Amino acid sequence: MPSLLESLLDADLWSWGGPDGPPRAPGAYAWSCDALPPEVPSEGLHADDEFSILYVGIAPRASAGSGRDPLRTSLAPRIAYHYTGGAEASALRTALGIVLSAPLGLRLRLHEDGERFHWGPHEPILSQWMQTHMRVRWLRHSRPWEVSDMAFRNLVLPLNLAAQDPTPFQRDLSARQASMQADARAAATRSPEAHS
Questions:
Q1: How far apart are alpha carbons 164 and 160 in whole angstroms?
Q2: DSSP per-residue string spanning 30-71
Q3: Which of 72, 80, 126, 172 is most buried per CB count within 10 Å?
Q4: Interatomic CA distance for residues 120 and 166, integer angstroms
Q5: What is the pLDDT of residue 47?
Q6: Where would I find the beta strands (DSSP E) of the chain?
Q7: Residue ranges per structural domain of the chain
Q8: With a cut of 50, which residues of the chain have pLDDT below it?
Q9: Which pTM does this prediction carry?
């Protein structure tokens, strides 16, 4: 019998707008890319069909309670949000936007709540890049954290910054994120328009 991780890795890749999209069910998902940003190291990445896995996530989180965010409760809304939403509720979009900030001209901004960060009017640019270059596969599972735990132990996942012992690339990416967040806070202090 294949392991949960093997079952996830054997699942079909799905592209935005394709048929038979993700279900409204709990599970784990893995994001793959066909055009690695130049600074993302390719060594050790799990790849097939010219797509390399960069990130694994779950819906819902193990700690989600009765008041949990509806965007995180099942695969369908969570995957849709990663593809079309904002960085303020997507660690994937935040990390990916940082490595694409120079080629795509993205600038991190502070949300009006003064806590979260997003790519402002450039979110659609990131969405378009993801819809062109990224695919996702998923595995239905009632305890999806069991799947992601296996992935974190056995795969190199450069955009999962908080789930693994950090690699040099992940440490650098975390430092860049902190620097960009500090710049966004400073910009918001200087000009209220910097929030938008």
A1: 7
A2: EEEESS--TTS--TT--EETTEEEEEEEEES-TT--TT--GG
A3: 126
A4: 28
A5: 95
A6: 27-33, 47-48, 51-59, 109-110, 117-118, 134-140
A7: 4-191
A8: 64-68, 70
A9: 0.91
